[in-house]
Amino acid sequence: MARIGYARVSTLDQDLDTQLARLKAEGCGIVRAEKASGGSREGRLELATVIEFLRPGDELVVTRLDRLGRDTRDVLNLIHEAEQRGAFVTVLDPHVSTRGEMGHVVLTVLGMVAQMERRFIKERQREGIETAKIKGVYTGGKRRLDREHIQELHAGGTGPAAIARTVGCSRMQIYRVLREG
């Protein structure tokens, strides 16, 4: 019977330290962490590893339910998958566990709140962008890839797959950058 912690932040500049310290303080012998959006399960390899690793009697621990995800269906599916493996899920804030039937109800409601919160965040972001565009100060999102470096590697004979591995992105992103240039 193991306590396995999972921590997640959405962006690269956010800090995981608080979640990691809390999970370790709660007795999680194994803690997996990643920086990825909670909007879907795609690309969340650490989460997939945790779910695959769960055994009967294990406990998946997260600091808040929105660390598992911000889509109600995804969160409920994750809880279901954990239970199919004989494990249960515990959220530390507020303290809720799937060990009891009431925990399922509370986690369902919290999942719906997390999804609603995500919609509000996106709406505020859209409003902010529109306001910035009207004022003429919108410059677009921060570029995550060094396009010049990608073009240099390609000009030097490096293939898209190797470039993708080098810069840490998908091959499709490399193809898009090469088409732009």
The order of strands across the largest sheet is: 2-1-3-4-5
Number of strands: 5
Give the helix/strand class: alpha/beta
Topology order in helix (H) and strand (E) letters: EHEHEHEEHHHH
Low-confidence stretches: none
For the sheet with most strands, the description reads: 5 strands, mixed
Straight-line N-to-C gap: 53 Å
CATH homology-level superfamily of the largest domain: Resolvase, N-terminal catalytic domain
Number of domains: 2
Helix fraction bin: 40-55%
The CATH topology of the largest domain is Rossmann fold
**Annotation field: number of helices:** 7
CATH class annotation of the largest domain: Alpha Beta
State the shape. globular
Average pLDDT confidence is 90
Radius of gyration: 20 Å
Beta fraction: 5-15%
The assigned CATH architecture of the largest domain is 3-Layer(aba) Sandwich
